[in-house]
From TrEMBL:
It holds the Pfam family Glyco_hydro_3_C. This is Beta-glucosidase. PANTHER family: BETA-GLUCOSIDASE. Residues 640-707 form the Fibronectin type III-like domain. GO terms for molecular function: beta-glucosidase activity. It comes from the Bacteria.
Length: 725
């Protein structure tokens, strides 16, 4: 059977500033409404909107007295102006579901890690995830969802990578856009964060990220640009670090000149919490001071007002800040809210399950060790709290799942940075595997003693080891090892029983020194509240794995641009400069540039089916459209994610993901896939001219299974082009 699929994944609309769907639906002009309302406001009212208050005083259980008592302990509260129908803002963290706030019943659907969502390569699933976040926010009367972390993964030790989407601007931009659109469709303002270059957690408040501005536009800022254009988020959030000498939240070159002036962003820019150092940040493009009482001063409250009264801040700038906020309120319709429908948690469970299923990546499967056969066999399950639940990452993205935590294990405790707690979501992979394999004799050992684990492995037909590494905001990992001696445990078990399958729950790549001894390796990330079921289904073949790596897995940090973790060699609080000398050549681009082979490349992921590619052709050179056919040559239904890359640009080496498509095919079925590339991915940014430029010449475009595994390629002759934005 032949199926025509018109894939738009690589295409970025040139009509970049279309109003969001909710404003179209409401038939309103948000700019005119914002202008009109702002003109009728008093200065007191204007200034009351320019800062948010954290509801709970940081690090204590005390509440901020200025916040009304009925507001739950969300990250931020902004006063409304009732006489003008301006609602108060309740800003809730929502990266991987709604963050728990106060009460025992404030649980929410806990989604898989951002990297798992990135690994789905499925923008339409990301939209559904956005809808889920929007619905759960609305049901709790929160009108701003602080999700949308799309910082590019530049360092595989970053403790917060699990929350982000990928190392690639196109993939991060497209997935981020769909989450934003899905959330905003539900009438909740969505945020993209953190602009920009918050690439590691260590010493991040004192880290000056030095980067060539053109390379910045071609990498991290391009991810934001793609997402802004496609989804029109109501707000952006700045980062903690400095960029090229100026704090990100007060960085005129980024906020005003790039995001607002060049990219045409119409919403408002809020700071991160504890990231503002003066009222002057308002002159650089920051519109709102978030969690204002945490900083040395409530800069956009008293000090900005004073500066304004002394004539140091133009009235027009204050009006602009307010109008930008109001525009988002009206565009997304938070001023017109009806009673929210009760949340259908069963339906949301199904979304969390689907995301986990599609995000799990089968890294290795020697001799078809997986799927596990049904039948009477002895299986040893070892380690990784598999008897209890699955891991989640800690920090502002932590969600309490609808069934509550299965366990909480305190880990780090730092005098300034606080504590981290490893929280497990039930049910357990052990129970899920027993359910999927009712005839098997399944034993479990927690892996505390190598001798016990080895003894159990000896009497088993198959060993499934669960390995984990907890990750958290504010902390990076020092290297790529597994903690608590798990590498040695796996090695010892592997030496006893070669029929070994390893399931990794980590928020980053790990080195896997035992990789040659394991027959199969499964990357499950932090798989969310239905993760155990998804893992068991993938291991037993009920679900055919289809995730693809959204980040490159290096052999070791020596292969990456920064072998030493930035900030790890100084006291916390020491100002440091980190030269992102790799520029735009992040992740797979860096591997291509240096000619190194990673352990597993960006885009890699195996299936229980096989897929063949043929007939790659240029459909239309002008619109940069190519097409190819993908066929399922295996014996079972499966999803594939063919990827199109640029490898050469007019004689210059250049590696860029241009597009991808998730295709679902039955055995023998084919699909013709069409990918239209964003011209910016074939161009270089010219900082002096503020435009993109494609040189005339031959361009090579390749089709592959990963950035490391390109199969077909084709040449394209292009004329010189120069274009804005
Ligand atoms: C994080 C943000 C988060 C904010 C509010 C900060 O520490 O960096 O991503 O939205 O806290 O909780």
């Amino acid at each position: 059977m032949h199926q025509e699929i018109l894939a738009n994944t690589g295409e970025v609309s040139t009509a970049v500033l279309m109003p969001s769907s909710s404003s179209v639906a409401a038939g309103r002009d948000p700019d005119a409404l914002a202008r009109d309302t702002e003109a009728r406001m008093t200065d007191d009212e204007r200034f009351s909107m320019l800062y948010s208050l954290m509801v709970r005083v940081f690090g204590t259980s005390a509440r901020e007295p200025r916040v009304p008592a009925d507001v739950p302990a969300v990250a931020g509260y902004v006063k409304g102006v009732p006489r003008l129908g301006i609602p108060p803002l309740k800003l809730a963290d929502a990266s991987l579901g709604l963050r728990h706030t106060d009460g025992p019943d404030d649980c929410a659907t806990a989604l898989p890690a951002g990297l798992a969502i990135g690994a789905t390569f499925n923008p339409s699933l990301a939209r559904t995830i956005g809808n889920l976040i929007g619905k759960e926010a609305r049901a709790r009367d929160f009108n701003v969802a602080l999700g949308g972390g799309i910082n590019l993964v530049r360092d595989v030790r970053n403790g917060r990578n699990f929350e982000y989407i990928s190392e690639d601007p196109l993939l991060s931009g497209l997935i981020g856009a769909e989450i934003v659109s899905g959330t905003q469709e539900e009438g909740v303002i969505a945020v993209l964060k953190h602009v920009s270059l918050n690439a590691s957690e260590t010493n991040k408040f004192f880290l000056d990220a030095i980067i060539d501005p053109a390379a910045h536009r071609e990498s991290d800022l391009l991810a934001f640009q793609i997402a802004i254009e496609k989804s029109q988020p109501g707000a952006l959030m700045g980062a903690y670090n400095l960029v090229n000498g100026a704090y990100a939240c007060g960085n005129r070159a980024i906020l005003q000149e790039t995001i607002k002036d060049a990219m045409g962003f119409k919403g408002w820019v809020m700071s991160d919490w504890l990231a503002v150092y003066g009222w002057e940040f308002a002159l650089s493009g920051l519109d709102q001071h978030a969690g204002a009482q945490l900083d040395k001063q409530e800069w956009f409250n008293g000090p900005l007002r004073q500066a304004y009264e002394q004539g140091k801040v133009p009235k027009e700038r204050i009006s602009d800040m307010v109008r930008r906020m109001l525009r988002s309120y009206y565009a997304i319709g938070i001023d017109q809210q009806r009673a929210a429908a009760p949340v259908d948690f069963a339906a949301h469970n199904a979304v969390a399950l689907q995301a986990a299923r599609e995000g799990i990546v089968l890294l290795k499967n020697e001799g078809q060790a997986l799927p596990l056969a049904a039948g009477r066999q002895r299986i040893a399950i070892i380690g990784g709290y598999a008897q209890t639940g699955v891991l989640s990452g800690d920090g502002s993205s932590q969600v309490m799942p609808t069934s509550g935590y299965a366990a909480q294990v305190p880990l780090r405790s730092h005098p300034l940075l606080g504590t981290t707690v490893m929280r497990l979501f039930g049910s357990s992979p052990l129970a899920a595997l027993r359910k999927q394999l009712p005839e098997a004799i399944i034993e479990f050992d927690c892996g505390a003693h190598i001798a016990d684990a080895v003894a159990m492995a000896k009497r088993a037909d198959i060993v499934v080891m669960f390995a984990y590494r907890h990750e958290a905001e504010r902390f990076d990992s020092p290297d790529m090892t597994l903690p608590f001696g798990q590498d040695a445990l796996i090695e010892a078990v592997a030496n006893e029983n070669r029929n070994l399958i390893v399931v990794l729950q980590t928020g980053n790549p790990v080195a896997m020194p035992w990789r040659d001894k394991a027959r199969a390796i499964v990357q499950a990330w932090f798989p969310g509240q239905l993760g155990a079921q998804a893992i068991a289904e993938v291991l037993t073949g009920k679900i055919n794995p289809s995730g693809r790596l959204p980040i490159s897995f290096p052999f070791d940090v020596g292969q990456t641009p920064h072998p030493t973790l930035p900030g790890s060699d100084v006291e916390l609080g020491t100002p440091i400069k980190v030269h992102y000398h790799e520029g735009a050549e992040v992740g797979y681009r860096w591997f291509a540039k240096t000619g190194r082979q990673p352990l597993f490349g960006f885009g890699h992921g195996l299936s229980y089916a096989t897929f063949a590619y043929r007939d790659l052709e240029v459909v239309d050179a002008e619109s940069l459209t190519v097409a190819f056919t993908v066929t399922n040559t295996g014996a079972r239904q499966g999803d594939d994610v063919p990827q199109v890359y640029l490898t050469d640009a007019a004689g210059d080496w250049r590696m860029r993901l241009l597009g991808f498509e998730r295709v679902s095919l039955r055995p023998g079925e084919s699909a013709r896939v069409r990918i239209t590339a964003d011209p910016r991915l074939l161009a270089c940014f010219q900082s002096e001219l503020g435009c993109w430029r494609m040189e005339a010449g031959q361009y090579r475009i390749a089709l592959g299974r990963s950035a490391q595994d390109l199969e077909l390629s084709i040449e394209l002759c292009l004329e010189e082009r120069e274009f804005g934005r």
